[in-house]
Design a protein that fits this description.
3 domains, alpha+beta, 4-stranded mixed β-sheet, MetI-like fold, 5-stranded antiparallel β-sheet, about 450 residues
């Protein structure tokens, strides 16, 4: 009897209890290994979040409790409302464009021989920091065509189709018979008639603006006009090295070729011509009567300066363009990875049934890629809400407020001159509340796909 009791007492534990103890031991070991990461997560994420939530209920000094006053003030501030609107533009435009571009590029790159090289080339901007990319695009968007590559291209195309003014800095010397009109043109004060010779002297022409083919105006100025013709010369009333006489054509003074000249009678242009290489012009077979000679304002119009990419109207689209340059490769690579897993038999079956490539793309490829496209889109939404570097670096100071988003507004209010960390913390809490739903959606989607 005693031996039986001892034997029963020494019997092994039930299997269920051993499993529970093994699980508790494994859980303890897992927590032990995860503890350093949890400690860092708490110190770098949880504590700052809780501190910001608490700080948002205090004033700028952090000593007086103000309740929800910062949140009320946040939605009264015009700059904050503009930041909310700009953030909404970013969220609506940037992720949709990136997902679409990534999808199109992923499909197209898959059909070329050097697909890996193209993917590497498009993905390379991801290796550039936002700060460096912002500096690059700040220079590219510069309004000066001599500095900004985009405006250099725009100005070149514009001038190729519409031309440019010949002498943008030229002006008439006062008291020499030319009167400036309200539209910027110049007109002779005294009336002239066929058979007369008119000399129109200008100053202020930069040496670079004088064409290399320009010839001296003196021979043309001494040429008599034929009966019925109105002749003249437009010249640079400046003698290199000094000397000469104002209002008279000196032997060393250059003609101004390519200048448009109009003959005007009773307020109406009756004839137009362009000056020759020596600055001479001629109106042939004019009817008798008094005329005025006019140099239209187009001769003196300032050169086309291009597009104000960083002006108040275009600064946000310009920064979004820089963002697209950086992140398109990311979207393309992720969507390309999803594209590589698609069942090829479904695509081949559609081709055998007579479907063209557009129908296959729209009815088969896009629906099968919907989970990947959703993950890419939501990930980009989260990233866009936190954009800071590009906006802060690219937008010039005068238009910083026109381009501001929630992240930059939070920094400006807290540290960039506002020195109101209570209001800045409220903005941070608002940004967190906007980001969290997208993060939760992404995590749930990821878990669902793993099952």
């Amino acid at each position: 009897m005693t031996a039986t009791l001892v034997k029963e007492t020494a019997s092994p534990r039930p299997p269920a209890e051993r499993v529970r103890r093994a699980r508790r031991r494994a859980r303890a070991v897992a927590l032990l290994f995860a503890f350093p990461a949890l400690l860092l997560l708490g110190a770098l994420v949880v504590y700052p979040v809780l501190f910001s939530v608490g700080r948002s209920f205090f004033d700028a000094s952090g000593t007086r409790f103000v309740g929800g006053q910062n949140y009320t003030e946040m939605f009264r501030d015009p700059a904050t409302l503009k930041a909310v609107r700009n953030t909404a533009v970013w969220v609506v435009v940037a992720p949709a464009l990136l997902t679409g571009l990534g999808l199109i590029l992923a499909v197209l790159v898959e059909k070329v021989r050097w697909a890996t090289a193209f993917k590497l080339l498009l993905f390379m901007p991801m290796a550039v920091s936002f700060l460096a990319a912002g500096i690059v695009f700040r220079l590219a968007y510069d309004e000066d065509p001599d500095k900004g590559v985009l405006n250099a291209a725009v100005v070149s195309v514009h001038d190729a189709f519409t031309g440019t003014s010949s002498y943008p800095t030229a002006r008439a010397r006062e008291g020499q018979g030319l009167t400036k009109e309200a539209d910027g043109s110049y007109r002779t004060g005294a009336s002239v008639s066929p058979g007369d010779m008119v000399t129109l002297g200008l100053v202020g022409v930069r040496p670079d603006d004088v064409p290399g083919a320009a010839r001296p105006a003196y021979p043309a100025a001494g040429r008599a006009a034929a009966p019925g013709d109105l002749r003249g010369v437009v010249y640079l009333d400046f003698t290199p090295g000094g000397g000469g006489k104002q209002g008279e054509v000196d032997r060393r003074e250059s003609g101004l070729p390519g200048m448009r000249v109009d003959a005007v009678r009773d307020g109406r242009t009756v004839a137009s011509t362009t000056t020759a290489s020596d600055g001479s012009f001629r109106f042939a077979r004019l009817d008798g009567g008094p005329y005025a000679v006019r140099l239209p304002a187009a001769n003196f119009a300032p050169p086309y300066g291009g597009v104000s990419w960083l002006g108040p109207a275009l600064v946000t689209p310009a920064i979004i363009g820089a963002y697209l340059w950086i992140w398109t490769g990311f979207a393309m690579v992720l969507i390309g990875a999803g594209l590589a897993t698609l069942p090829r038999d479904a695509l081949e079956a559609a081709r055998m049934d007579g479907a063209n490539e557009w129908q296959i793309f729209r009815r088969i490829t896009v629906p099968l890629l919907a989970p990947v496209l959703t993950v890419v889109f939501v990930t980009l939404v989260i990233n866009v809400m936190k954009v800071f570097d590009l906006v802060y670096v690219i937008a010039p100071g005068p238009v910083q407020e026109d381009a501001t988003v929630l992240a930059t507004q939070m920094w400006l209010v807290s540290f960039g001159g506002g020195n109101d960390q209570g209001l800045g913390s409220a903005l941070g809490v608002l940004l967190l509340l906007l980001v969290v739903p997208a993060m939760v959606f992404n995590v749930r989607r990821f878990r669902r796909s793993q099952r």
